[in-house]
Design brief:
The chain is mainly β and 425 residues long. Helix content is 7%, strand content 38%. The protein folds into two domains: 66 residues, Dockerin domain (Type 1 dockerin domain, Orthogonal Bundle); 335 residues, Neuraminidase. It starts with a helix and ends with a strand.
């Protein structure tokens, strides 16, 4: 990959030639030694972070060796995902991962860390990790003191985040992080939940928890309609959150998990707004929320298929990949065993002008692609009868070359991964 492209994509220092750590105009064994010296703490040199992941380690040594041998990665063209790169890596049934499943008692969420997808049922059982390539269960994550009663998510630097469920009756909301499924996570936040509303079902992390990031947690339960937002600076979480009421009178008040929404912040800047998906009063609503007023500023109309009464805009999530803002919406069919599978709608949200109350979810100008969830051959009974929930995440890989769309639900009883890339073919 060209040095200028790595600098633009990862924010690393620029050099005339990528891998020319000592600056002599060529890449050779002396550059390998220069990286090793930085890795061992014997020297400082910002050019030693050849991989652009924010630290200097063996991957940078290998990168310099590959450049020296002429084994360089292909360039990253244009902006955003490469057209035609979407591929379904896997979709497996949750019963393949857990021996006992009660769809009405679980609140499944998903995350990624390295080559793994992590599944958390939200019922206190230890989350499992599966191969991102095949969906094969490989083991249970090391929990340590983490309490997996809430949800899991990921940041943009390869960290897994575990949240507990805080019931608003004086309990504390906690977050733990780890970059290794076999290493016990470290607590990064413990905040009193003094608002009297449940917290922990949905969490979004924008940025790098080892550097700068924003954490957004959506309240759940009767009359929630709020988010809590924490800022992270230099790897340290500010324990004092900003609590925001979202949507105003245009949003139907929550009654139970069937109506729960999550709020996904569009970018790292709250002023850029939020997206909110909700099923209420027999109709689906996908809103754009103004980040300054926190009021509804636009929406997309329901699918208009005649079956929207049986669909739920269960969850949405945002990220920035290769310079483009993306948002995914999970439209979950309440009765997949009756021929109502779910759909994932991926949108380019660099602009939100098409959230105009006229365009529909399935044909909006910003729609990038639609991906099916569930299959008539999958065993989805007994599906959840109430409290039907789903999770979907858009998580860039740490190297910035691929984008993972991971999803699960207690209604389809599946977990899956669709992957995109931005690599020149």
């Amino acid at each position: 990959m060209a040095g200028a492209m790595v600098a633009a994509m990862c924010g690393t220092a620029s050099a005339a030639t990528l891998g020319d750590v000592d600056g002599n105009g060529s890449v050779g064994i002396e550059d390998v030694n220069a990286v090793i010296n930085v890795m061992l703490g014997k020297a400082e040199n910002p050019l030693a972070d050849v991989s652009g992941n924010g630290s200097v380690g063996i991957e940078d040594v290998n990168a310099v060796i590959n450049i020296m041998l002429g084994k360089v990665d292909p360039e990253q063209p244009g902006d955003g995902i490469r057209e035609g790169s979407a591929q379904q890596l896997f979709e497996v049934e949750l019963k393949a991962l857990y021996e006992e499943l009660d769809a009405n008692a679980i609140h499944p969420t998903v995350a990624t860390v390295g080559d793994y997808v992590v599944v958390c049922l939200g019922d206190g059982r230890t989350p499992v990790y599966v191969s991102k390539a095949t969906g094969e269960k490989l083991g249970e994550i090391a929990l340590g003191e983490a309490v997996p009663t809430g949800s899991v998510t990921s940041d943009e630097n390869g960290n897994l985040v575990i949240a507990n469920w805080a019931d608003g009756q004086g309990s504390n909301f906690c977050l733990w992080k780890t970059a290794d499924v076999t290493a016990e996570p470290v607590k990064i936040l413990e905040a009193p939940n003094a608002w009297g509303i449940n917290l922990g079902d949905y969490v979004q992390v924008i940025g790098n928890l080892d550097g700068d990031a924003t954490i957004v947690a959506t309240f759940g339960g009767l009359y929630a309609q709020h988010i809590a937002r924490w800022t992270v600076t230099g790897g340290v979480v500010n324990p004092e959150p900003t609590v925001v009421s979202v949507g105003g009178s245009a949003i139907v008040q929550i009654a139970d998990r069937d109506n729960n929404f999550n709020v996904a912040q569009r970018t790292s800047n709250p002023a850029d707004g939020y997206f909110l998906g909700q099923y209420a009063s027999g109709a689906d609503n996908f809103y754009y929320i103004d980040g300054t007023t926190n009021e509804v500023a636009g929406s997309l109309l329901p699918l208009g298929t005649g079956a929207e009464w049986g669909m739920k805009y269960a969850n949405c999530y945002c990220t920035t990949f290769n310079g483009v803002n993306y948002t995914v919406l999970f439209a979950m069919g309440y009765w997949p065993h009756w021929g109502m599978p779910g759909s994932l709608y991926l949108f380019n949200t660099d602009t939100v002008d098409y959230f105009d109350g006229v365009n529909k979810v399935d044909n909006a100008p910003g729609l990038v692609g639609t991906y099916a969830v569930g299959d008539a051959n999958l065993e989805v009974t007994p599906a959840a009868e109430a409290g039907r929930v789903a999770d979907v995440k858009l998580i860039p890989t740490k190297d910035g070359k691929r984008l993972d769309l991971v999803y699960t639900s207690n209604t389809h009883l599946t977990v899956g991964c669709v992957q995109f890339d931005c690599i020149e073919q």
